[in-house]
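Question (not urgent): is this output format expected?
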Amino acid sequence: MLVRWTIRLLSSLIGIAAGLIISDATLSNFHISVEGVVVATLVFWVVHIVVSFLALRVLIRQPSIAMAGLLAVASTIISLVIVSFIVSSMKVTGFSTYVLATLIIWATTAIGDIVGQRMIRARRIDRQIDRRS
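Got this back:
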């Protein structure tokens, strides 16, 4: 159980950090320092969890797959706005930069979640094979 939680945590943090780094590298109005990546990743992760939890529990009674995807993008942009105000070493200017950075971070976190789930699934299969041997 602890290993699964650790894999999910690390894949999520790596996905967020990758999104921030890619946004900095590709978007001219997105700037973040090396220290800012670490701080922003941790703050983003916490804010994103809180925003997603509140939206799922308070706003949506019966989420569908489409609604979950829309919620993920919305909570990503809300988290990005909050983090850009909190973390002084990260600067985002312009509406289009917020939108593009949101899509980049959303995509990298989704990829991170998929990789994490596959790692958990592979570990589970390996454990089942070991039990049969």
